[in-house]
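New to this. Look over this protein:
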Amino acid sequence: MTHSTLVTAQQLASHLNDPGWCVVDCRHDLFDHALGRRDYDAGHIAGAFFGDIETDLAGPKTGKNGRHPLPTRETMVALFRSWGMSNDTQLIAYDAQGSQFAVRLWWLARWLGHAKAAVLDGGWQAWIAAAGATGKEAPKRTNGTFEARAPLVRYVEAGFVQQHLDDKRTVVLDARAPERYAGEQEPIDPVAGHIPGAVNRFWQLNLADGAFKPADQLRAEFETVLAGRKPADLVHQCGSGVTSCHNLLAMEIAGLPGAQLYAGSWSEWVADPARPVAVGREP
């Protein structure tokens, strides 16, 4: 069976020693980049690898391409192989922050054409609550044979977004907190506000008690956002292209696949002062 969206702690526990499964710890903190690794070293799901959001799951920064640029596909293939993965491996990502970082690995796997990628629903907290096995050792596996295939997801660049600012069909969906969207607070990036015309849907709205809401509830909520448009008309963004994948996964769970990611997101957008900025709680 292929898991392509979510797995429960119970499902993962039943496959914990399965060589055909690969678990990756994506815990992170945007204000303390070393925290995820410290937490991993202190204890993680037994047999899990560590995927660093800043280095493993992002490419080099130029100052113009955002805080978490996409890595190259070749770099990701090498990383997957180092985790012992083949194209038949079931990949499971987790974190302790409501899956806001684990979703990045889920999206990257799909970008490499790998459908067998899922997020542990409820993350580290659900695993501990289920008395799942933990360890402190990093696993050792023989290099895998993973090969990239045709992408299962699509992304766009800043030029596409700029060209569609006045296009009523294309909707940019901003996953950041309402305060950041409105420009009332900006703790990370140098400019506050949002892309003109963007609609706000805070990624945490996808959750209830730390786990994803049921598929039918998510579908109803996103159909309201779509307002008759197709999922492909949505362009998801956030601060740096990470938590926007949370909305993308939620749409996948809801049976509404096909939306696009603006990978550079707000941190890339404001790197060019010529790009327009809006403030306030309305698009």
Remarks:
- The longest helix spans residues 215-226.
